[in-house]
Amino acid sequence: MADGHNLGNHGGRASSWLAVTVVLAGFIVGGVGLAMANWLIVWVGVGVIVLGGVLALVFDIFSDVVIDAPRAGMRAEDHR
Asked: Any stretches that span the bilayer, and where are they (predicted)?
């Protein structure tokens, strides 16, 4: 960031984290339903995942992506 451009941070917005949390909760609910062999709970989990996907589209979570500045002068040998 030597050129003075603000490229943002890697934290993301709270609304983006909400969408990701809803999707994660859906996977957990679906996984528990799958382990219990209860297809109703599996489909409830799928519905929660779809709800999280809709939230992700509405909240435009991909606008939180941070583009890092190019790393000049870094060679593979420097990391050993």
From this structure: 16-34, 40-62
- State pLDDT tens for residues 40-55: 999 999 999 999 999 9
pLDDT at 49: 98
pTM of the predicted structure, to 2 decimals: 0.71
Q: Taking the CA of residue 80 as centre, how many other CA atoms within 13 Å lie in the half-sphere pointing to its CB?
A: 3
Domain boundaries, the chain: 14-63
Cα dihedral 52, 67, 5, 8 sign: positive
Low-confidence ranges of the chain (pLDDT < 50): 1-2
Contact 22, 45 (CB under 8 A): no
Going by C-alpha positions, the residue among 11, 9, 16 that lies closest to residue 61 is 16
Task: Tell me 65's DSSP state.
Answer: -
